UniProtKB/TrEMBL annotation, chains A, B, C, D, E, F:
<dbReference type="Pfam" id="PF01969">
    <property type="entry name" value="Ni_insertion"/>
</dbReference>
<dbReference type="InterPro" id="IPR002822">
    <property type="entry name" value="Ni_insertion"/>
</dbReference>
<keyword id="KW-0533">Nickel</keyword>
<protein>
    <recommendedName>
        <fullName>LarC family nickel insertion protein</fullName>
    </recommendedName>
</protein>
């Protein structure tokens, strides 16, 4: 896996989310931005993209086409992603998926799917955090039995 | 004193230091930038300007002329600035000023003047932090006698 | 106008954009987040909401319902928004709106509408920054004649 | 309530947590730090302190004694803190307190006490997030019956 | 040495310091957090851990057990740590250690030990910055003779 | 190319720009600072330097001499810089250079030279953003014919 980085101090920040969408479309595994302070104290951002080596040319194309950077760099990184399973939980607002992550055979993470919780909160007019809490409670109640 | 604020998400950050210089020229007492996250997760900056009410029109003019904001807000703030005195310290690299701040008659702050320390470091090829340390040591040695 | 603030150190940051959407829906004039460092060095965020005094109760309701804060504060702020006009520019990718801001009768700002530029970029497969540049160029060419 | 602010660009950041502790001791209601960019692009921090007007002199004393600022400003702020109740939940790792916040008679927040969860995690060798999840689950199970 | 990184956008930030303590206990050489902006503009944090390759499994275990990440990555890094010596300085508040760092045989750094300065400040009711200044002055006075 | 990093939590931030200048002088290709949160929640900064391997010793010397860090680390990075050409544009305020960047034979970037635009804005009393806009417009008008 490659980690590509480009420091940008002269781009309209409105473009950031659009650039991120294009990079995910081109096969990037992750895209994130780090606030940095550049030459002469300018507040800039560093674009970070994780991508397979096979996608390097495409990702570079998008970075140069869509941002204002005139250079980028990349480093080799080893990635470790947990095995994942999805499970449905029945809630008062319909079934909602929970993504569970496994490390050495043990479940170490679980997280309600954001999009589905958001949809439930909007449809039923409940606070989003309450949907999250309820999904987590029900998921744990099931796991404990 | 007024604290003026403008959120900016569509300006080339290269302009920040120039904008700051113009605002100080127009009589602003302080100018600083806060990294913020705006609508749709855009990384923006909030320009902050402290200025006397009498300077409001001039400061507003510069903010609208030199940045890309279409609005600003201001709040009333009470400022408390320490009484200050300058003293010279003789160092191996010439005399360097120290700014001392007094609170209720007691010296609570002292700081070597950055510009003079920087100049000494450049002229004599010593690390800047060493100049700072030496000025502080000599200033304290004198104060202790 | 009121500026409401709530410091939050125990909320899942995934919720931020959702909270922002609900606040805009309830009539907030602006919503933004400032990264802060809280007690015991915890990385938190400060939610900031600008709203008319008349909306105070509704905005408070949403802040308490949708975030995990147990307190908020507000200050009075005076806002100055530029008068604005919209103008259409004919581009190779259709007509795109430009928002112009006027200060004391002079146009001091102009900005292509993000959503329309984004749509043009996606539809025609051109870099978004090129759409922006072209809209700005055409707008200025017209204004100069 | 007053919100005091001091911009600091020449202080060893190691001192921040110590300064915060002294301010809480002197009766501050909240203390937090905002990363900012100051004159000449220097990365600084803005100290923020919320305190009753009656504590102004003491809080000022500590700010001037313990930080390197030579000035501060303050604004008046109106605070709204939720009514709070504490409840104990029986867990496999002993009883743990939950702080609940009430807005217009409805419970809108609940949060396990950090210190007690941390102690349980350390004593029993369980992940802290698991303690949190379990306390929240048990609290909600009780509230639902 | 390995640099491990995990991007986290759905964890209660209260957990950060606890996670850091566990990682140091497990043999990490350094732990720090970088504020980042993730997918959909979410304000997240990137956990960074420096550790010997021999500690990789233990450090990974803690990251997956104690944070909410479902993936991490690591890069190889070469570290250069200065040779260090500790020296005691006699102060009005007892002996306080100073850590000196040597580069190519020359002392390039010296820093009073934070914990000891903090203890002296608390015990004697002196400003912490004054303790620092005094320790540095005495250390330099000795070195100059 | 090497990417050197040093985490700093006990340095006066005033020194940052000076340190950057010295590093560029010593042949660094880029220097930038990332705000980070260090042990015990201290707000620190991470110095980042990009430099050729041949410059490693000199860059290390400056980092240890001019900052307060007692360690640094470096990683190998591959850099990709666009081919660049400079072109002059005739403006009402004199000729101003534009730097253009080429990727696979296509111009993907162009940026007016900051220093020249700033000089024009200061000399003629025009807003800097207007100089930028005009240079970009004229550059594009020429490219389109």
């Amino acid at each position: 896996m490659l980690l590509l980085q480009a420091n940008i101090d002269d781009m309209n920040p409105e473009l950031c989310s659009y650039v991120g969408d294009r990079l995910f479309e081109a096969g990037a595994n992750d895209v994130y931005w780090i606030p940095i302070i550049m030459k002469k104290g300018r507040p800039g951002v560093m674009l970070n993209v994780l991508a397979d080596e096979a996608k390097l040319a495409q990702v570079e194309d998008i970075i140069f086409r869509e941002t204002t950077t005139i250079g980028l760099r990349y480093m080799r990184a080893t990635c470790h992603r947990l095995g994942r399973q999805f499970r449905k939980v029945e809630t008062p607002w319909g079934a909602i998926s929970v993504k569970a992550g496994y490390h050495n055979g043990t479940m170490v993470q679980f997280a309600p799917e954001f999009k589905e919780c958001e949809q439930a909160a909007l449809t039923y007019g409940v606070p989003l955090k309450q949907v999250y809490d309820e999904v987590r409670r029900l998921f744990l109640n099931e796991s404990n039995n």
